[in-house]
Amino acid sequence: MILDITLWSCSSSGKLTSQNSKKAGKEQKSHTFVVGKVNDKPVSFRELMIRYNRDGKIDTVNTRPSYEKLARFLNLYLTYRSKLAAAKHAGYFQNPDILSEFRKYEKQYGFQYWFNHRLKNHLLNQLIQRSDSAVHLAHILIRLSPHASPVDTIKTYNRLMKARQEFNEGVPFQELIKEYSTTIKKHPLGGDLGFISAGMVVKPFEDAAYNTPVDNVSMPIRTKYGYHLVYVKGKRKKVPAREVSFIFFRTKGKGFSIKSAMKKANKVYQKLQNGVPWDSLVIKYSEDYRSKLSNGNIGWVHPGQYLPGFTDTVFAISHPHTYTKPFYSGYGVHIVRLDSIRTYRSPQQKNEELKKMLKNLPRYKEHDELIIRKIEKIGHTRVIDNNYWALKKALIQTDTLNLSTIQFQSALLKKTLFQINGIKYKVKDFVKWLQHTVNNPEKFTYRYIYFQKFKKHEAENQLILMSLKMFPEFATNTHTYLNGLVVYKISQDSVWNYAQKDTSALRKLYRAKPQDYYYNTRYRYYGMVSNKISTLKSAVNLIRSGISVDRLKNDIHGYLRINKDVVDNLSTEPYSKLKGLQNGEFSKPFTYHNSHMILYLNKILEPREMTFKEAYSKLVSDYQPIRKKEWEKSLESRYHVKAYPKQLKLALEQSKK
Fold it and tell me: Cis link prior to 574 (omega < 30° from 0)?
């Protein structure tokens, strides 16, 4: 929490204000004790302990700190509260930059909060439930852009509904694939996928596969690839994954063919039969250069992961450490060795493996879209189609390309375009959003994607509102973050930035402690770096001949990098090479960070006092803690900061009983 980050800026040097507290009645519970005040507002023991314990638990004896630790923390917390009060009075909570950063965090945290509390466990449990079975699928695929217009979307959907009706009337699904699927080079994108299991396909497709009964066809579903109709041909217990290695022979490309690949593969197979080690044959003969680096290992293979010509052969191998005869898979010719069959020592181990698997799936990494869909579902999102078409007509039929000059009928602007979570968004809201969002409003052309982005934008806003309403912890954490932002900003302005501008105080400090702003003996040097010692020697000769170091690169052939700096400590590398050198002398060549290097000592600078300008950065650094203490002291006085140590001690003692 931000409190933990920002409390460091609060003073810990001040002593607790000593003040007698009234005797508390025996019936008073420890958490109601007032242990301090800021601006006449009480700070209870409960509030202090919630802040002290990151998890907010205040009812466990084991979480109780010592009195000394808690007293120090009370000082920090009261100072923190005084800074919040100062920030509020100064208007920091209305600062546009702070609010802009806060809104970004709030949205980011909102997505993460929903994922952690409403989605992650659901995804994992679903993966676990589905992991024991596999589904044999075929599908029709009609390609459709994610940003396709409603007209094209409805047209595609209705086309698949027609195909579904034909299937229910007895038309074989294979014929429907040929008739309805998008084709590329006369080949349909749909087809038989074989057996798939959980995690192998995009989530909407997987949902349809596992939710549709055997020998039935799903309703049309949309993925990033387009619209699908999924036919479930069968279900079975999942076959354990196989870890395999192969020796691969190319069949595609100039000079390659299935026949020539099989001929080479048979020769290698015979060598295996004669006892030649697998690893040596992989290195010498395999034409898959990626797997060649790991002795042919391609990792775990799942049913349906590759073309049936490959997976069917892999899963027909019964025993580990045995290999197949050469076969053509559709990818090329292989000799495959089974390395191991996936087994689990316990259900817990299996679940841990599935948890790791989930983290690598798109549904886990791209969960924002799933959350938006969930928000839209919970919020009963509904588009008013007639009003959308009326708006689109007005945008398309206008005789101007300048968005800001398009004239909309007053009645149209007042119509509801869509609603979510009971909130209605008018046409005028969308138009206003367009005017602030479109990059080039002078040459505006309407696209359906604009409406999609507008709906998503408002759904994200609803995500925040619904989170604040549904999850008290979300509201607490975001409020704490905002407090942290304003405390950081007011501290920056009142201490760090102030210290840089208070030249009067800086000069006073400079005059008071001149011994702190003093140069010891320093060494001005050039560091010359090259990949060749000969280049460095040429550079040394040119400098000795009178060529300026700054002009050196113009006269050097080859790579040469030159660094110029001043150091006062010769105890570390490579600066130790300057020891014993006089002005104008060179070190011997040496190796540093895998490069050749020579140091040239330009001049030994004698000890002297720093000028004010030279000492400025150090003065600011030295003055900041002084300024910080002064500022916090002024806040303590201005906001009547008080601590009640006796109350704190009594509350802590009672809480341990």
Answer: yes
- Give bridge partners of residue 136 from the DSSP assignment: 195, 234
In a domain, 611, yes or no: no
Q: Is residue 629 part of a domain?
A: no
Q: Which residue, 81, 21, 24, 3, is CA-closest to 655?
A: 24
Q: Are residues 250 and 228 in the same domain?
A: no
pLDDT tops 60 at residue 55: no
For 231, the 3-state DSSP assignment is: strand
pLDDT tens-place string over residues 533-569: 999 999 999 999 999 998 888 888 889 999 999 999 9
- Helix, strand, coil percentages (3-state) for the chain, rounded to 5, are 50, 20, 30
Type of residue numbered 246: F
Q: What percent of the chain lies above the pLDDT cut of 70?
A: 94
Domain boundary among the residues 341, 367, 396 is at 341
Round to whole Å and give the CA distance between 177 and 165. Answer: 14
- Structural domain boundaries, residue 597: 521-606
Query: What are 453's two structure tokens?
Result: 């982005």
Could you say which of 341, 374, 406 is where a domain stops? 341
Q: What is the pLDDT of residue 218?
A: 96
153 shares a domain with 186: yes
Q: What angle do CA 497, 502, 506 make, to 5 degrees?
A: 115
Q: Considering its fold, how many domains does the chain have in total?
A: 4
